[in-house]
Design brief:
Layout lengths: L9 H7 L48 H14 L3 E5 L2 H12 L5 E5 L4 H13 L3 E5 L4 H7 L4 E7 L11 H11 L2 E5 L4 H4 L9 E5 L13 E5 L1 H15 L5 H11 L2 H21 L5 E3 L9 H7 L6 E5 L3 H14 L4 E2 L9 E5 L1 H9 L3 H11 L3 E5 L5 H12 L1
Parallel strand pairs: 2-3, 2-4, 4-5, 5-6, 10-11
Antiparallel strand pairs: 1-7, 6-7, 8-9, 9-12, 11-12
The structure holds pyridoxal-5'-phosphate.
């Protein structure tokens, strides 16, 4: 699998891409450029459409050196020509939808996804005259049947939050090509280390960089990586016009985190494997869904598609009532793991999500789609983001909380 924009090894890339010594001071560590505006010596145009990759810095909503450094690092890690950093992962999702969809267009979206994306697609886009079909992306026949003449975008998420169901990106990318649609993928759960989305045929790869890429739970941000052409369209529309850009302070923090991403992902995977195996062997746990386990329903796809299984585990402890009881015990008993939303941090985080609540607020699945969800994930799920602590300490914590 090729990484089109990477000539060095992955560790070297993570550390050095976008972070050369500072040209004005020779500082080895990157400075933070906070200036909102730049002194200019030419009569540069002031339209989003005047911006080219060679344009001098004019105003930080157009481009900022610290943010540009992070964008170069993420593009190099994901193997794309370019990247747009955004104010949050949600801003990255909206940037994709609002740059590439117009009234009368049709979007096919995963019927299970990060709840914010699910709600944006189901509630906001139809108000803008965009047709939306939420489908089970692990069922190729269903995706094929959903394609319409006006399908412009297929938006996937793999592994999907919160149930770790996988999408076969190669197959979906073939369908997108045939339909003349773009394929975007939210690869937040996998990180750039887990999915070589360029080789798998994805046009636009988005991340909540709040998660693995930043890695330390101290900065919210988002990113979309893709071809220079597609990213320049997004920079003009979503960045300059809609204005959801990343601040230089957050870009600096997230770039520092991203420098150790390859090492951290190896450790997340090792820790999650140990915890998932322990959970699976425990009789108090009724189901464990982790792409690195032989029991994952799509284990062959996981092996073929993922180069790192990440640190995200979904598990169940019986009925929804059992889940609620154990969640309460977690709140009272956990010492190391934080009972909190979010994921991909160095600290382990766990959160319980009831199927009924998720359906009412976010996914709104019925009939066969609801059945598919329940068959895969049961009734209520714990989402555990395994951090970088010692696996024995996490296991001891879970053991006490499971009571
Ligand atoms: C898969 C996925 N995509 C997008 C988002 C949204 O990211 P943010 O919270 O940075 O807006 C999240 C947040 O949890 C997520 O898990």
């Amino acid at each position: 699998m090729s990484k089109t924009n990477r000539s060095a090894g992955i560790m070297t890339t993570a550390i050095h891409a976008g972070d050369p010594p500072d040209a004005s001071t020779n500082a080895s560590a990157p400075p933070i450029h906070v200036s909102s505006t730049y002194v200019t010596d030419d009569l540069a145009g002031f339209s989003a459409h005047d911006l080219t990759p060679d344009s001098p810095y004019v105003y930080s909503r157009w481009a900022n050196p610290t943010v540009a450094g992070l964008e170069a690092k993420i593009a190099a890690l994901q193997g794309t020509e370019a990247c747009l950093a955004t104010a949050s992962g949600m801003a990255a999702a909206s940037a994709i939808f609002f740059t590439f969809l117009s009234a009368g267009d049709h979007l096919i979206v995963s019927d299970v996804s990060y709840a914010g994306v699910a709600e944006l697609a189901r509630e906001t886009l139809p108000r803008m005259g965009i047709e939306v079909s939420p489908v089970n992306m692990s069922d190729l026949a269903v995706v094929t049947a959903a394609i319409r003449p006006n399908t412009r975008l297929i938006h996937t998420e793999t592994p999907v939050n919160p149930i770790n169901r996988l999408t076969d990106l190669v197959e979906i990318s073939k369908l997108a090509r045939q339909a003349g649609a773009l394929l975007s993928c939210d690869a937040t759960f996998a990180s750039p280390l887990g999915l070589d989305t360029v080789a798998l045929g994805v046009d636009l790869t988005m991340h909540s960089i709040t998660k693995y890429i930043g890695g330390h739970g101290d900065a919210i941000g988002g990113a979309v990586a893709g071809s220079a052409y597609l990213i320049s369209k997004m920079r003009a529309e979503a960045g300059i016009h809609h204005g959801g850009i990343l601040s230089p302070f957050n870009a600096w923090l997230i770039a520092r985190g991203a420098s150790t991403l390859p090492l951290r992902m190896k450790a997340h995977e090792a820790g999650a494997t140990a915890v998932a195996e322990w959970l699976e062997a425990d009789p108090r746990v009724s189901r464990v869904i982790y792409p690195g386990l032989a029991s994952h329903p799509q284990v062959e796809l996981a092996k073929r598609q993922m180069s790192n299984m990440s640190g995200m585990i979904s598990f169940q402890v019986g009925s929804a009532a059992d889940g609620e009881r154990i969640a309460q015990q977690m709140i009272e008993r956990l010492n190391v793991i934080h009972y909190a939303v979010s994921l991909g941090h160095h600290r382990s985080l766990v959160f319980w999500m009831g199927t009924e609540g998720l359906m009412e607020t976010s996914f709104k699945l019925q009939g066969a789609q609801l059945e598919d969800y329940r068959n895969f994930a049961g009734d209520g799920i714990f989402r555990l983001s395994v951090g970088l602590e010692d696996a024995e300490d996490l296991i001891a914590d879970l053991d006490a909380a499971l009571g």
